[in-house]
Design brief:
Largest sheet: 5 strands, mixed
Strand content: 5-15%
Low-confidence stretches: 1-7, 10-18
Number of strands: 5
Distance between the termini: 29 Å
Radius of gyration: 18 Å
Number of helices: 9
Shape: globular
Mean pLDDT: 90
Helix content: 40-55%
CATH class: Alpha Beta
CATH superfamily: Glutaredoxin
Length: 207
Amino acid sequence: MPVSRRQFFLLGSTLALSPAIWAADAAKAPFMLDVEYKKVPVPHPEKKVVTEFFFYGCPHCWHLEPSIEAWLKRKPKDVTFRRMPAVLNSRAWIFFARAFFTAKNLGILEQSHRALFDALHRDRLKLFTVDKLAAWYTQFGIKPEDFKAMFKSFKVDAQVKEAARLTKDFGIDGVPSIVVNGMWMTDVVMTGSYDRLWKVVNWLVEH
């Protein structure tokens, strides 16, 4: 599926290396900084961790899901994958971030994540209130009152605040965005295709 620029919803080293060595390294790199990927504004360095920032209301995030699922089947075992709801200054983004963390805390995220995307985008369900969302989640064995209690909990408050902090630190202004090792950000707009996106991600994981 063709993707236009930011059509996506919404929106050193301890060795003193010589310039010649740096130039040689850059020439050998298969992907270019600030072209296929960029450094995040406030890094949170970690090793071999891939984080997807998404929004349940984003159709592009929904379309990326099959590609993510395919990559997860072939990624190296020592690479950790995390999903993180992007939290921008919008009630809708906060609302669905709360839904994500509620499902995660109740132990039903694995079953419900793709299903919620499908419900919103394929089935066009209007799950825009806590009551409607709680009723929808009953299919995963969760009572509405339990869902609503977790949705409104201090635990979810703290998780949403942390997601908002990471969204800001990593400079996320559109979704889906992929952050690698807490240092680098890339997306389909920068890479040009789903296939190339995962090639960039795999390369960044090791660098």
